[in-house]
Amino acid sequence: MTELRASDLVHVYPAAGVRALDGIDLLIEAGETVALIGQNGSGKTTLARHLNGLLRPSSGRVLVDGRDAAELTVAQLAAQVGLVFQDPDRQVFAGSVLAEVEFGPRNLGRSGDELRGAVRESLAACGLEGEERTNPYDLGQSRRKLLALASVLAMRTPVVVLDEPTTGQDPRGVERVRAAIADIASKGRTVLAISHDMRFVAETFSRVIVLRSGRIILDGSPSEVFGAAAWDALRSTYLEPPLSARIGDRLGQGSTPTDASLIARLSGDEAQEQKA
Amino acid sequence: MARSLRLTDPARIPANSPGRGIPDVIGRPGPSPFHRLNPLTKATLATTTAVAAVVLGGLVGPSILVGAAVIVPAAMAGVLRRLLVMAAILALPIALSAFLINLFFFPGGETVLLRIGPVAATAEGLGFAMEILARILAISGAITLFYLTTRPADLVVDLERRGVSPRAAFVINASVQTVPAMVERAGQITAAQRARGLDTEGSIWRRVRGIVPIVGPVILGSIAEVEERTMALEARGFSRPGRRTLLWSPGDSSREAVLRWAMVLALAALIVGRMSGAWQ
User: Fold this and answer.
1) Does B202 touch chain A (CB under 8 A)?
2) In the predicted model, is pLDDT for residue B68 greater than 90?
3) ipTM greater than cut 0.85
4) Nearest Cβ partner for B224 among A52, A85, A89
């Protein structure tokens, strides 16, 4: 399983002279589900793109499974870290859903039963079974987004990075994304997702990292990051804790980052609370 | 009478600074007097220079044109270095192939300068290749100078002010602005495909194999974008008949109008002289 580490990572966009990452130190252990949050321009996407070599550090290092990412090509890193882009229309090109999903695994040299199994599994995880022969552009935008996710899941990379996976999704689509993430995590793979949806973040991930101006300002469990003690730091980067956390605090129930944790706390159901 | 910048509120223009008070998103005079020429004047200069280089022929005429109508204005505008680099990149493929073909395969070439296997470079071929090269440099230099000193939006606004329909003006603007937008889109698509293991750094075969996954979304995305943009324009009254209110338009003057006509008439005279055999 793959561990990700960034050491004093700095990235400066030379054309704009913007210091997008300003000394990031981070360790993400294999199997963790991590959400990366922060306002626009805080460095989330820049950090994600360092993990599979699409961007190279101005200084500092990124280690993927103990190997310096600077020594590996993007094609080599793609076998370790799959990256799902925010806009599916910037990657979908094939004439059918099947060909689109097969593209990544084929690039990694997969074939035969292994390829077919990976494709079937990823289509099922994203609710696209039966759409194999459909032209991707006949799918709606939200399902095309799920197709982009499926095409990366089929690569079976130990790490999956998702850039705003719930943007443009209806509640059913969000639920589908959440289920797909749970499925990846259940296989011991690491998930790192960028999101602006605080409720989705609190309900889906075990760890939340908050970025502001290229620096990590908060790093902890949803209970810690969305707990009242962290609100000032959170609001310094224009983020609001989920509604359940604010209601729980108002009612003196402590940190309740999810609806389930709030209901469990209010009903005094310890077993349910533990689960939440 | 010389007309300067036009704003809805002329009082907002300070006497000593024609640019102050004009938001960048609306329009802004360029940094040099050449930049500040009316876009149509610069377009006329580029067009007449390019056509004149072809009509003149030979080596001397196009070379003088390059110096007078490209190098000198570019130096005045402070874009000479960028112009030389861009014009070289723009013209290199065609200039190189035209030069080599004429150098080695010029019909009737007799004075052999160099022989490589079955082909020979001749002095006559070299002379003709130099003439072609001068014409290509004049054309690419004139176009590049216009591109470097004129914002597409300024040209479109000026054309609209002169009565060109908003539809035609939009087509011109969209055509010019599509290129950088497509380059940016292609960059993002390349990143997305590389993240799925597409190797664009390996052998030529691998790079060729990578063209479809990159070009496909560029074209499909652009087509989809055109549809969305069309609807967005329609929703904001693009097709409405009648005159538009221009918030800003580039300055123009009677002196520039005279200059434009002089360039057009000089070119017409050149063409007539050439066709009548006044010189060979």
Assistant:
1) yes
2) yes
3) no
4) A89
Inform me whether the C-beta atom of residue A115 falls under 8 Å from chain B C-beta atoms. no
Tokens of B22: 């004009």
Residue A112 to chain B, least CA–CA distance (Å): 18
Residues B227-244 pLDDT 10s = 777 787 778 777 777 777
Q: Does the structure show a pLDDT above 60 at B24?
A: no
- Where in the sequence is the domain holding B181, given as residue range(s)? 163-235
In terms of domains, do A230 and A247 share one? no
**A174-202 pLDDT, tens digit each:** 999 999 999 999 999 999 999 999 999 99
Contact B188 A85 (CB under 8 A): yes
- Domain co-membership, B36 together with B64: yes
Residues A123, A178 contacting (CB under 8 angstroms): no
Cα–Cα distance between B193 and A104 in angstroms, integer? 8
Q: Which residue has the higher pLDDT, B55 or B95?
A: B55
A85 with A161: CB under 8 angstroms?
no
Structural domains of chain A, count: 3
Asked if B175 contacts B266 with a C-beta cutoff of 8 angstroms, the reply is: no
Q: What is the dihedral of CA A134, A138, A144, A148, to 10 degrees?
A: 40
CATH code where residue A14 lies: 3.40.50.300
CB interface of A with B, residues 219-248, below 8 Å: none
